[in-house]
Amino acid sequence: MPVLEFVRLATASLGPLRRPACALLIQPIVTVGMLVFLYAGWHVRDEGSLGAGLRVAFIDTRAYRVDHEHEREAAILQAELHYAADTDKLVDESLTGLLAYAPLAARVRLGVVHNGITGVTGVALLRYDITNAVAAPGHSVGALLLNQPLSDWNNFLPVLLAGRCYLGLVTEQPNPALRVRFEGLGAGTFMACPVIDNRNRMLGATFVTWDVRDLPPTGDALLAVMKYALGVGQQVASALDLRGRMSPFTGGPEAQ
Fold first, then answer.
1. The CATH homologous superfamily of the domain defined by 85-255
2. Cα–Cα distance for residue pair 111/177, rounded to 1 Å
3. Distance CA 99, CA 228 (A)
4. Measured in whole angstroms, how far is the alpha carbon of residue 124 from the centre of its chain?
5. Does the pTM of the predicted model rise above 0.70?
6. From CA 153, how far away is CA 167, in angstroms rounded?
């Protein structure tokens, strides 16, 4: 009994202390509740619906969105790397086939046309890149080039646009930059053939080069090589078009 009496007296004495403690806790709890309500209400107003507002307020926060965007960009980059590797493999296989088909050819290079830059007049200056190249044993593929002026091709561009191949001597090319570039590869003769897709758009050109000491085929053999090169151009165009459609940077599946 003395123990029970002690507990009763202690509880009675603490009663006045518990009420002020509860009163002290009520105010901050109400304040926090009001802030949370206002925070959620602000997002509900911005998003236009209760569900969307609560999601943005408590789940899809700004920090979450930034982190998610970083992960998305990393995934897109990885997908683009895989698409680029697959496309380059297909293109190189096609160029290798053309190299084997063209007698005594030293190398085959692919030039891809793009929009380039805009000049001071506001007119787009078309450019091309040498993106892929293969070479016969004992020969180098040469440097892969970026942002070269399409004016390098002025001497034979009308032939390419007409869907035909051009065969010419390096020494007879009026463009000094192109001539020096071919001479640096040891080329004496070259053949340029258009890369045209199934919508009749010219995406670039393949370049087959022969060393100064070697001569390209003539007559029917040359016509056969040109026909084969035009077919390779279509294969390359299909590969480039597929990469463009699948690329995350151009709205492909990985970008969704």
1. GAF domain (3.30.450.40)
2. 15
3. 10
4. 21
5. no
6. 13
Task: List Cβ neighbours of 52 (8 Å cut-off, separation of 6 or more).
Answer: 44
Instruction: For 135, list phi and psi in degrees, rounded to 5.
Output: -140, 155
| Burial (CB count within 10 angstroms: exposed 0-12, middle 13-18, buried 19+), residue 73 | exposed
- pLDDT tens, position by position, 85-140: 888 899 999 999 999 999 999 999 999 999 876 555 556 689 999 999 999 999 99
Q: Can you read off the two tokens belonging to residue 212?
A: 């100064």
Q: How do the domains of the chain map onto residue ranges?
A: 2-60, 85-255
Instruction: State the pairing for strand pair 107-118/124-135.
Output: antiparallel
Give backbone dihedrals phi and psi of 212, rounded to 5 degrees, phi first: -55, -40
pLDDT digits (tens, 9 = 90+) for 176-210: 999 999 999 999 999 999 999 999 999 999 999 99
214 closest CA partner among 186, 180, 235 = 186
* CA 243 to chain CA centroid, nearest Å: 9
Local confidence band at 70 (pLDDT 50, 70, 90 cut-offs)? confident
